[in-house]
Amino acid sequence: MVGAGTAGCVLATRLSASGNHRVLLLEAGGEANHWWMKIPVAYGRLLGNPQYNWMYRTQPEPALDGRVLDVPCGRVVGGTGSINGMIHIHGHAADYDAWRDAGNDGWGYDDVLPWFRRAELNSRGANTFHGADGPMPVTDPPDRHPLADAFVNAAIEAGHPRNDDFNGAQQEGAGYYQINTRRGVRASTATAFLAPARRRANLTVLTHANATRLLVDGQRAHGVEFRHGGALVRATAACEVVLAAGTFNTPLLLQRSGIGAAAQLEALQIPVTAHLPGVGSNLQNHYRASVVVRCRESVTLNDAMRSVAGRLRIGLQYVVARRGPLATGIYAGGFFRSASHVERPDIQVTFWTYSVAHRGARGLLLHSFPAFTANVVLLRPQSRGSVNAASADPDAPPVIVYRHLTAEYDRHTLVAGVQRVREILKMPSLARYAGEEIAPGITCRSDEDLAAFTRQAGNSVYHPVGTCRMGHDTMAVVDPQLRVHGIAGLRVADASVMPMIVSGNTNAPTLMIAERAADWMLRDARA
Questions:
Q1: Pick from 501, 520, 486, 10: which is nearest to 287 by CA?
Q2: What DSSP element (H or E) covers 96?
Q3: Which residues face 377 on adjacent strands?
Q4: Where in the sequence is the domain holding 333, given as residue range(s)?
Q5: How far is CA 46 from CA 128, 158, 308, in A?
Q6: Could you tell me the CA-to-CA distances from 177 to 39, 150, 214, 346 in Å, in that order?
Q7: What separation in angstroms does the CA of 241 have from each of 7, 18, 48, 197?
Q8: Residue 120 CB contacts under 8 Å (≥ 6 apart), including other chains
Q9: Cα–Cα distance measured from residue 185 to residue 59, given in angstroms and rounded to the nearest whole number
Q10: Is the pLDDT of residue 362 over 60?
Q11: Residue 353 lies in a domain
Q12: Could you give the C-alpha distances from 264 to 156, 249, 467, 514, in angstroms and in order?
């Protein structure tokens, strides 16, 4: 298996559980042992660290005035799940029904829900929508925050329902997010799944093992070539080779192994093994615009981090009780319809009790004044991008273009979403806190002004999917059981197989995909 990220850790754990199969898990990065990885709010300090992040960047984005965006991608055991915001969201039921209706039998909501439940160790206990016996901790924030409470109440005043479970019977509404933590410490599939499994004699995990190409004879994959300890090593598989390297590195490895669009590969002087033109296409990602408001009271994380005493206070609160701002990250938010005629939520809000001035070498730098942020996320973008190998060199970074906001629907929906969120921020419950709007700013009023703002100041939400999508048409890369078309013994099991992005954070759906893939692989091995 290539990639010990969110999916790879699940796969290695499930496939090695019986003791009947030997599993080799390759990870290009190192162990997730930095102490910042244990503190929930500290993910912002890890996004700019090349030791744990591939540090990819996009090409100039054509609809964003040529801006180049950062593309965080985990390079560590646990993958991006070791450096993400930990929000646990399944997505909307209609997302999965759309996958099924596109020809992917077995991927409707009723099909995938049991696999979400199987993975969860939910602090609320088991019910129709949640599991309580799985490895992955899912918990409520250990504390409430007055600003987060005010945002939820303001959304209700604006006519939106309260929602205490975004993964329950309905997604729409405002409330608190559940997160992947255990007793105030980050939980990832590296800690929840893989760590206990690493005691098994039939599981080998190699870190700093960078896969260079797949070994394919004829139309069958039989192994992987990788660099480890200064040597070029070949590992062969008796059953299957599984790619779980993520939305960027999985298609890159396929392309560098001669699997992809023939014309592109020939241009790079890579011998063509299989013509699969969909490899690297269909890239989708969530995009956001942030409304930043100065706070009238000194209750934000900006205030706490501004002084030595404040930092000591929240640090001590975390060390002693595993509570406070460091134990939570993101508290509240919601899923809303940008207009009354929209059938289901098309925007998501993540509400921060802080505001970011800019990203520095040591992580996110907060404003020196009290402020809070409502991030408006476009849930189902129609814009499509791509990722492609720049050369056959395994060290060459990929060519990535999201093409954010190239679709008119995306531009219109995001502007409408910002206007809807501005309405919420003006409600009475936030009146005692909400001061001057810093961004977009009070002079930004018309739809044209907001369109320019979203284009010039918006950013990625770091939820890339879709570059090896499942299906049966000529652009599909894998079938509904995630087997690569035309190459026996090769499967893909990560976020790249999603045909359409889900309405929400993508870590939990990626975990679910890995659960399903492991089950299919074990069934095939027994057949």
A1: 501
A2: helix 93-101
A3: 288, 348
A4: 142-176+287-378+403-463
A5: 36, 36, 22
A6: 17, 15, 40, 17
A7: 14, 19, 31, 20
A8: 130, 131, 132, 134, 136, 138
A9: 36
A10: no
A11: yes
A12: 52, 17, 15, 29
Sign of CA dihedral 94, 96, 98, 101: negative
Question: How many whole angstroms separate alpha carbon 356 and alpha carbon 364?
Answer: 6
Angle at 181 between CA 176 and CA 186, to 5 degrees: 125
Cα dihedral sign for 435, 504, 332, 514? negative
Q: How far apart are CA 364 and CA 387, in angstroms?
A: 27
Tell me the backbone φ, ψ of residue 187, rounded to 5 degrees.
-115, 135
Cα-Cα-Cα-Cα torsion 265, 271, 277, 282, nearest 10 degrees, comes to: -60
Whether 121 maps to a domain, the answer reads no
Active site residue 88: no
Domain count for the chain, please give it: 1
| Rounded (10°) CA dihedral 84, 85, 90, 91 | -100
Q: What is the CATH number of the domain that holds 169?
A: 3.30.410.40
User: Please, which pLDDT band fits residue 460 given cuts at 50, 70 and 90?
Assistant: very high
Query: What is the residue whose two structure tokens read 């893939």?
Result: 517
β pairing state of 332-336 and 287-295: unpaired
Instruction: List beta partners, residue 205.
Output: 25
Residue 248 falls inside a structural domain: no
Residue 448 CB contacts under 8 Å (≥ 6 apart), including other chains: none
Q: Which amino acid is at 321?
A: A
Of the candidates 100, 138, 104, 142, the one whose C-alpha atom is nearest the C-alpha of residue 118 is 138
- The answer on pLDDT for 423 being more than 90 is yes
* Residues facing 223 on adjacent strands: 215, 236
Q: Tens of pLDDT along 349-361? A: 999 999 998 876 5
Overall average pLDDT of the 498-521 stretch: 98
- Closest by CA to 79, choosing from 397, 462, 387, is 462
Contact 436, 256 (CB under 8 A): no
Provide the angle, in degrees to the nearest 10, between the axes of the packed helices 109-119 and 93-101. 130
| The pLDDT of residue 361 | 55
From 88, 130, 404, 463, the catalytic residue:
463
Q: List the one residue out of 517, 57, 496 whose CA is nearest residue 254.
A: 496
Q: What is the pLDDT of residues 486-509, one digit of tens each?
A: 999 999 999 999 999 999 999 999
- Residue 266 domain flag: no
**CB burial class (10 A; 0-12, 13-18, 19+) of residue 51?**
exposed
